[in-house]
Design brief:
Layout: H1 4-41, E1 55-60, E2 65-69, H2 74-77, H3 81-104, H4 112-130, H5 132-141, H6 148-157, H7 164-181, H8 184-210, H9 236-252, H10 255-274, H11 280-305, E3 306-311, E4 320-326
Antiparallel strand pairs: 1-2, 1-4, 3-4
Helix pairs in contact: 1-6, 1-10, 4-11, 6-10, 7-8, 8-9, 8-11, 9-10, 9-11
């Protein structure tokens, strides 16, 4: 029989990821309920279309804090479903193309500060690369020791979240369902993740093809490279899982949630090393470029979602500001 204290710790760690996902769902439900209240106040004989639900106005006044939908023209309300759908698809495609150009052209906009950061990141990566074998051996040697054992066990429990073939199916299904029923915050989150996924996947495919680093389990050491044959560099699980954690942490915006989310990502990264799927530097590089991409996309999207303008709510005796929020 094992130590009951160790078993209890393992159980707590194994349940942590479920608590994180539950907190995220509750957050989205609260956002959705808040949205429903706003729509109820603006209820008409005809339900608003999907596009109509995409634009909100959060009105801030000296003594009043209320929400309402933007005033809608009759032709907008009367759009049929197909017109709304094609409009949204066109907008999504345009956003994706714009973001893709922005990400791939970012090296041309590097400045001195960014160059210094890049140098520091490269230096850390170089050290990891030089000691990949030693770090891997140390982790494997202590794989069954506390607390590494519990960390790796949690990583094995949630390893599927980083599997692109699995998580993308759930994300696409969730995005479709939330879009149809009008859960705009959840639709936005899943859309942001899919965009990040395809951008990071394209970079990963380049690494797999042209770097061709073989996995540790092949037994050829950390410096064996075969064009279009190796599958170690970079880590797909890390580049799939980290953006999801980053997007959710950005939405929830609480240090406790962020700590839990990133800790779970770290357990997966360690598990991918101890399972001989990746070298430590593979996981590190994947985490870096995934973080940079999703962080830049979130900045672009959220900067474009909020606009501030003066308003008097149509009344001569009331003045304030309109915070226009676009999902």
């Amino acid at each position: 029989m094992g130590d009951p204290r160790i078993a209890s710790i393992r159980l707590v760690l194994a349940l942590t990821w479920r608590l994180v996902l539950t907190a995220a769902v509750l957050s989205f439900v609260c956002d959705a309920a808040f949205a429903v209240d706003c729509f109820a106040e603006q209820q008409t004989a005809k339900a608003p279309s999907i596009t109509d639900r995409l634009n909100w106005q959060l009105r801030i006044h000296p003594q009043v804090f209320t929400t309402s939908l933007k005033s809608q023209s009759a032709d907008t309300v009367d759009r049929n479903v197909w017109q709304t759908f094609t409009h949204d698809v066109s907008y999504a495609a345009g956003t994706f193309w714009s973001d893709t150009k922005h990400i791939y052209s970012s090296p041309a906009r590097i400045n001195t500060r960014s160059a210094l950061w890049l140098g520091g990141i490269a230096a850390v990566g170089g050290v990891l690369y030089a000691f990949d074998q030693e770090i891997l051996d140390a982790l494997v040697r202590n794989r069954h020791e506390f607390p590494l054992k519990q960390v790796v066990d949690v990583g094995e429990e949630i390893e599927w979240v980083g599997d692109g073939n699995v998580i993308v199916r759930y994300i696409i299904a969730t995005m479709g369902a939330s879009y149809l029923i009008g859960l705009d915050p959840l639709t936005s989150v899943t859309a942001e993740y899919l965009e990040t996924y395809y951008l990071t996947s394209s970079i990963r495919q380049i690494g797999l093809t042209f770097v061709g680093r073989t996995r540790p389990r092949i037994g050829e050491g950390p410096y064996n490279f075969e064009f279009d044959e190796g599958g170690s560099f970079p880590s797909g699980h890390m580049s799939n899982f980290l953006p999801l954690a980053k997007i959710l942490a950005h939405r929830v915006n609480h240090w406790a949630f962020s700590t839990l989310a990133y800790s779970l990502v770290a357990t997966t990264g360690i598990q991918r090393i101890t399972s001989f799927n990746h070298w430590p530097s593979d996981v590190y590089v994947s985490a870096v470029y995934s973080w940079v991409i999703v962080d830049e996309l979130l900045k672009r999207h959220w900067d474009n979602k909020v606009q501030v303008a003066p308003s008097n709510l149509g009344k001569t005796d009331t003045s304030g500001l309109i915070l226009v929020w676009r999902f």
